Amino acid sequence: MSSKDPTGIAAPATLLRLIEDSGHSFPVIEEAVRLLRRGIAGVDLQDPALVEVLRQHLLAVGSPTDVTKYFSLELLERVSPERARDTAVELAELLARSPLLPERGYHVERAVLRSLGERKVARALPALALLAGRCVFPISRTAARAVVAIVGASSRDAVVERLAGLCPLSSTGGPDSPSPRELAQGVARALAEDVRRSSRGSDGHKKRTASGSQGVRAPEGSDRFLRPEGKHARQARLRATLRAAGRDPSRCGNCDLAGKTAVVHVVPESRGGTDRVGNLVSLCQDCKKRLPRKARSSDPSRSGGAPQLTLFG
Ligand SMILES: [Zn+2]
Questions:
Q1: How far, in Å, is the centroid of ligand 1 from the Cα of 251?
Q2: What H or E segment, with its residue span, contains residue 281?
Q3: Which of 63, 110, 119, 302 is spaced 20 to 30 Å from 203 by Cα?
Q4: What pTM value is reported for the model?
Q5: Distance from residue 287's CA to the centre of ligand 1 (Å)
Q6: pLDDT per residue as tens digits for the range 140-159
Q7: CATH for the 229-313 domain, from 2.70.170, 1.10.30, 3.40.50, 3.30.450
Q8: 285 C-alpha vs ligand 1 centroid, how far in Å?
């Protein structure tokens, strides 16, 4: 892209225009965010064009750049919590009517759906219920759990009642839009499937944890290796994954410092994060210490509005 100026700082308004001129193409959006991230120190955080670029990035659901999207998510939440929430609702609505690929994982999108549940954003309910009812896992499971969190109960009647109380759904829904009862049935289906899946998978889990390997997972796709993977072997494997994708694991993915690094999961494994390259980032010791592991999903206002680790330098 030719928008890059010699200092490496690109004005959000210029980037936004390029995104619009390109017809919102994924590569252009991603390049714009990459430039923003690099020149973030020189960007006015109050610039409305900045908010719009971040929003465009989060709504680009076909693009696989999870690490950069976390940057956009964190920055948007920092500069405008209100717009972040609106964008989250918009994203849920977009996902509910988009083609979904189960193998994609949708890490960032699921984190956004979880935040809607945690913050009890009621106007996201119809979209979340629709998404749950599509039964594409794991994203439908996350959506179903968000519905339960917002409604405060998992019973079908409670979900129907709450959905029926949302005016936009009953008044503006066209003839093809599902009724509250149909939506609630979809949520119930997703929850039932979720229970079925987790009980089916529990045997293998027991075998792996029985030998004292609590929290250590066998390498993906090698369920026959029941011996727990050691810390070093695991790091070596994750580093190899990054290298195979053309990324340098010996540089910090946050501050770009070269040196001693550890590869960590962007979405922790305890929250469904996988070992796929989009979910991995190498961090130096300093940046790793600042990972807001527990704080990320909780109310950001508690920690003064800013997450401890920002995925930019
Ligand atoms: Zn670092």
A1: 8
A2: strand 280-284
A3: 110
A4: 0.60
A5: 4
A6: 999 999 999 999 988 888 88
A7: 1.10.30
A8: 7
